[in-house]
Amino acid sequence: GGDSEVQRTMLELLNQLDGFEATKNIKVIMATNRIDILDPALLRPGRIDRKIEFPAPDEKARADILKIHSRKMNLMRGINMRKIAEAIPGASGAEVKAVCTEAGMFALRERRIH
């Protein structure tokens, strides 16, 4: 089933990571937003040696992301990006972008109804 496929994929990934020669200049970059559920075998020294965290954006950064992704939208006057950013604490950059996309889709649907 699905679990055995996940296990096979993990084993292959571990084998590939273990197979790199130290003398080769090979860098492997991985990304996840769920480090808490990664297999501990993946995190042992020699496999993933350095961890760089990119925390969720703070309120100002969320407001800036909202401004960037709403630049080409026709916004009503008085839209307060800071208030919207305040209403979505802990949201990732992608989630903030999705708020803009969803708001745009909602606005388009509303125009069709009226």
From TrEMBL:
Belongs to the AAA ATPase family. GO terms for molecular function: ATP binding; ATP hydrolysis activity. It is found in: Cytoplasm. SUPFAM superfamilies: P-loop containing nucleoside triphosphate hydrolases. The keyword Transcription does not apply. The keyword Nucleotide-binding applies. Keywords: ATP-binding, Cytoplasm, Nucleotide-binding, Proteasome. InterPro entries: 26S_Proteasome_ATPase (IPR050221), AAA_lid_3 (IPR041569), ATPase_AAA_core (IPR003959), ATPase_AAA_CS (IPR003960), P-loop_NTPase (IPR027417). PROSITE patterns: AAA. This is 26S protease regulatory subunit 8. It comes from the Eukaryota. Residues 79-112 form the AAA ATPase AAA+ lid domain. Residues 3-55 form the ATPase AAA-type core domain. GO terms for cellular component: cytoplasm; proteasome complex. Its main location: cytoplasm. Pfam families: AAA, AAA_lid_3.
